[in-house]
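When time allows, look over one protein, given below as sequence and tokens. The question is which stretches look regular and which look disordered:
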Amino acid sequence: MKRHGWIYTAAICLVIATMAAGVYALFAPAAFESSALSLTPKHLEQRVSHESDSDLKGEISSENSKESESKPESSETVPISEIESAPQSGKIAYLTFDDGPTPKTPEVLKVLKEKGVTATFFTVFHSNSDQYYQQIVDSGCQLAVHAYEHNYKKLYAVPESFFSDFYKMQAYLQKFTGAPITDFRFPGGSSQTVTDKKMFCKIILETQKHGLRYFDWNVSAGDATNAKIDTDYVYNNIIPAAFKYDYPVILMHERSPYTREALPKIIDALKQKGYQFGQIKDLAVPVQHRTPAYAEKVLKEQSGNG
């Protein structure tokens, strides 16, 4: 009997243990989840968490990068109202116009007058245009030499041909200015590469002996092209590029309708940044792509090689 009683007692205990295990399996996982228990050591848990966040941020950043790459760059003009204003601080902008005058020159002079600013006109010879040269002088703007004939190969063939052309244009303009003009701009600028480099360097050095000053530019409207452009193209080539300089010398061509249309906005943007306006004759140090020192160095090097 005792043996049967022990067996009976063991069976009851087994049933009770089985029921207890079922209850534990049902409720224990929820208890662990609700208390956010982890078997990972705390310092490793933090590291894993940070790395996961970093990976996620990296993926987001990568997606944003891909999205930005797929968007075309905006070519819209920045409104004047969005340009941060600045007080006048001694910065001077030099508006310059090449290859005129033309029948459209009066339009440019009108804008300059309305805006109360001045400019410099590097002129070439145009027949039946005396009234336009005179209007430039009467407006108070600077009249300067570009060339009598805008012909690179003929102009830069030898120093004699250059100075023959220069003095012919100087004499022509003197009837409007009353005095000889010594400020000029090389056709193509001093960085032109159409003609022989050695010959052109000789011409650069000779201009110093003649007491002449040449002026290039550090900002260009990009309007001397046959490519399809528009007013925004001209404006965006100048603004905000001009803001990089305290004394921007801006190259434009008055024959371009897009330049004439953009000119008022260009002037307004420069004014808003605190720029005043001057004529290149007042520049103490001319903007020059190739200086006389450069020309002298080139000639010495070529002389040593030959």
Remarks:
- DSSP finds ten helices and eight strands in the chain.
- Confidence is low (pLDDT under 50) at residues 20-75.
